[in-house]
Write a structure and sequence with these properties.
The chain has helices at about 5-10, 350-360, 370-380, 400, 410-415, 420-430; strands at about 20-25, 35, 50-55, 55-60, 70-75, 85-90, 100-105, 110-115, 120-125, 130-135, 140-145, 150-155, 165-170, 180-185, 190-195, 200-205, 220, 225-230, 235-240, 245-250, 255-260, 285-290, 305-310, 325, 335-340, 345-350, 435-440, 440-445, 455-460, 465-470, 475-480. The two termini are about 15 Å apart. The chain has six helices and 31 strands. It has two domains: about 15-270 and about 300-350 and about 435-480, Methylamine Dehydrogenase, Chain H; about 360-430, no CATH class. With about 500 residues, the protein is mainly beta. Mean pLDDT is about 85; it is low at about 1-10, about 370-405 and about 485-500. Strands 10-11-12-13-17 form a five-stranded mixed beta sheet, with no helix packed on it. A five-stranded antiparallel beta sheet has the order 14-15-16-18-22, with no helix packed on it. The protein is globular, with a radius of gyration of 24 Å. Keywords: Repeat, Transcription, Transcription regulation, WD repeat.
């Protein structure tokens, strides 16, 4: 759950959103396609991120120090002739060494030791270029990949499985075209996939082998437990879990959608493979193992519920991916970020949506008669008063970063003209209409260049946000540079269930 207003008032810095700080340019690299932060460090460790594009891979350490902001700690060049790599994921060796998995046009997944740069393993198997890689937080020795061959594959990175590493192939009736994006649920039991066929699928992850298990043959998984082609009308090139909710974008639609699978709960028992719905009804655009609409009942719930959508202007290029920061402490806020094709980064603080709803419906928000009377008297006299309504000063971005810091403050409600600001607020914070796109809570420009943002990644603490894109540009954005209390991860997730 979000932090109580009193706690947020004590931690006003949590309302800050990132500012641009530093830029790195990879020479002779037309596009940097993907970026990921190392997720397995200690709370006291400095954040480390890796980015990949074409033949180049770079590992960097950003710091809050003024004199040395971003340190390059490893750089690797893929010498394969036709290599054009576009996806990267962190994993771990069984002895705890950090590994990087990267892939792209060659349909091969390459795994290197980050400390030495040594190529340790190559995973063949896909029948086309690979578009995305993912590793579950619950098991750093497992890797998922998706490809233009219309499949998702699951791999073991353990030494015991080096000769036969493929655990499972998700194919059959899942996707009919290239799969562009995948993501693991935080509990590791589910995986999302989305693709060029407009489809978003959710699969259950089969039982994973340990070091004593021999993989004789990859398991074939034909049916996802949930599948829909109704949420988007074109290719879906980014899909992510947000707790039990889903964020996804169709690349020509101009918005990101937040939605949920009806009656899906990760706390419930994982359904067996036999529960996955088949394609016996070819006309069904949505199939679900979690909720079946009673036949002929037009008043029943849908199998998925659309909740919100976020406006992303100038984001109509193919293969652009947003980043979602989900905090591990209730004192920090979940933030969605997306970069467009004109060097603009959009941010949405999802805690503001909840607080705005509380604020706008609170009895304290209704202005008292004495305030209205005072405003009228001030207007007639033409004289200023320190207690007047601030009707000439609409509150916009400063809502979250001013001394007020929260919509929940009674004095704030009494100090402004609600109606003068309501329209501008609703464009950013009102959640009543799932078809009305919410404008960004902050837009940060990347100076001096025009770059298409391809991917966004967040550090574990949320203090750094990195955007990569065209012209070899890697942009580092920062918040909480100083005077911010350290918040140790408690591994509790923010519950977004009331965000809609």
């Amino acid at each position: 759950m979000a932090a109580p207003p009193a706690d947020r008032a004590k931690n006003k810095a949590t309302w800050d959103l990132p500012q641009w700080r530093e830029m790195i340019e990879l020479v002779d690299c037309p596009e940097v396609y993907d970026v990921k932060f190392y997720p397995y460090g200690k709370p006291t460790d400095d954040p480390i991120f890796a980015a990949v594009g074409g033949k180049k891979l770079i590992v960097c350490r950003p710091t809050h120090a003024k004199d040395k902001r971003v340190e390059t700690i490893q750089a690797v060049v893929d010498e394969e002739l036709n290599a054009d790599n576009c996806s990267i994921a962190w994993a771990q060796a069984e002895d705890g060494r950090p590994l990087l998995c990267y892939a792209g046009s060659t349909a091969l997944i390459k795994i290197i030791d980050v400390l030495t740069g040594e190529l340790l393993q190559v995973l063949p198997g896909h029948g086309g270029g690979i578009f995305d890689l993912a590793v579950p937080r619950t098991n750093p020795h497992i890797l998922a990949s998706c490809s233009e061959d219309s499949t998702v594959r699951l791999w073991s990175l353990r030494k015991a499985h080096k000769e036969s590493p493929c655990i499972a192939v998700f194919a059959g009736e899942g996707h009919l075209d290239a799969v562009l994006s995948i993501d693991f649920h935080a509990n590791g039991h589910y995986i999302l996939s989305a693709g060029q066929d407009h489809v978003v699928n959710m699969w259950t992850v089969p039982k994973l082998p340990d070091e004593s298990t021999i993989i004789e043959k990859a398991e074939a998984i034909h049916y996802p437990h949930f599948s829909t082609s109704e949420v988007h009308s074109n290719s879906v090139d980014c899909v992510r879990f947000y707790d039990d909710l889903i964020l996804s974008r169709g690349h020509e639609e101009g918005y990101i959608v937040l939605w949920q699978i009806t009656r899906f709960s990760s706390a419930a028992e994982v359904p067996p493979a036999s529960a996955a719905p088949t394609t016996y009804d070819q006309s069904a655009r949505t199939r679900s193992a979690f909720f079946k609409v009673p036949e002929g009942d037009k008043t029943a719930q849908r199998q998925y519920q659309r909740l919100l959508q976020f406006a992303i202007p100038q984001c109509n290029q193919w293969y652009m991916r947003f980043g979602m920061y989900t905090p591990y402490s209730s004192l920090r806020h979940p933030v969605l970020a997306m970069c467009n094709s004109a060097s603009k980064v959009f941010f949405w603080d999802l805690s503001r949506l909840v607080d705005y709803q509380k604020f706008i419906t609170s009895p304290e928000t209704v202005l008292k008669p004495n305030w209205l009377s005072l405003a009228s008297q001030t207007k007639k006299s033409g004289k200023s008063d320190t207690h007047r309504l601030l009707s000439q000063t609409p509150i916009d971005e400063s809502v979250a970063t001013s001394s007020v810091s929260s919509f929940s403050t009674e004095t704030f409600a009494a100090a402004i003209d609600i109606e003068a600001n309501r329209g501008a607020w609703d464009e950013k914070y009102a959640t009543g209409n799932p078809w009305k796109s919410l404008k960004a809570h902050k837009i940060e420009g990347i100076p001096r260049v025009t770059s298409v943002g391809r991917a966004v990644a967040w550090s574990e603490k949320g203090d750094f946000c990195v955007v990569v894109g065209s012209s070899g540009i890697i942009s580092v954005l920062e918040r909480w540079a100083r005077n911010t209390p350290d918040i140790k991860p408690d591994r509790s997730t923010v519950n977004p269930g009331n965000a809609s």
